[in-house]
Design goal:
The protein is mainly α. It is 44% helix and 9% strand. The protein is built from 7 helices and 5 strands, in the order E-H-E-H-H-H-H-H-H-E-E-E. The strands form 2 sheets. It has a 3-stranded mixed sheet, sandwiched between helices. Strand 1, helix 1 (14-30) and strand 2 form a beta-alpha-beta unit. The longest helix has 18 residues, at 52-69.
């Protein structure tokens, strides 16, 4: 199998968080290149935000998802955020870091801090500090957020939405268009034996 395998992640998705490291393992297992791409999951899609009862039901669903995903965490701390974060700024910073080859370093720092409630994805100063921690000079980031960054981010979002069978928030990952796709089901809980990963032209399951 040649060519990159596209993997879309939303940095606020706990399922993406727990699936990230197994996805990295695919590269060693099968000699493929996993190309990480940002994707915004609208986890409140279909909820009438003007209806208090509907909002309450939506928040109950989110709390359930966080309780569910903790069953699959392998020593990872996953605290539910105090609000639903807009990930456009942090995803733009991810793309900025990726320009210098530090995209993964940025992601690997962002995920655990966010789910420990140590990082505000909407705080520009905090995001610039995260860039520095990942080894990225934040000079030029502000300009990037006003021009090239939003355009790149929109392109990734459009590509994800155009791809067939984009997965939902519970899976945490979206898969790319054929013939090379990457799909993630829920990670196997630690107490259950996991099967060997397999890869083919249709999908890869973690």
């Amino acid at each position: 199998m040649t060519g990159p395998v596209d993997l879309w992640l939303d940095l606020k998705s706990p399922y993406s968080f727990v699936a990230k490291d197994p996805a990295y393992a695919l590269e060693k297992e099968f000699g493929v290149t996993v190309r990480l791409r940002p994707f915004h999951l609208d986890i409140m899609s279909g909820v009438d935000r003007n209806d208090p009862a509907a909002l309450q039901r939506g928040m109950r669903k989110i709390r359930y998802l966080y309780a569910d995903v903790r069953r699959f965490a392998r020593g990872q701390t996953i605290l539910g955020p105090k609000k639903i974060f807009d990930t456009r700024l942090v995803h733009t910073a991810w793309l900025f870091a990726d320009k210098t080859g530090k995209g993964r370093a940025f992601i690997d720092l962002a995920y655990p801090r966010f789910f420990k409630r140590e990082l505000d994805y909407e705080d520009c100063a905090a995001i610039e500090a995260l860039l520095k921690a990942a080894g990225v000079d934040p000079a030029g980031f502000e300009a990037f957020t006003k021009a090239e960054g939003p355009e790149l981010l929109a392109g990734h979002q459009q590509a994800a939405e155009a791809a067939a069978d984009v997965l939902g928030a519970k899976d945490g990952l979206a898969h790319a268009a054929p013939p090379r796709t990457l799909r993630s089901n829920r990670p196997t809980p630690p107490h259950r034996p996991s099967g060997r990963m397999s890869i083919d032209r249709k999908s890869t399951r973690l």
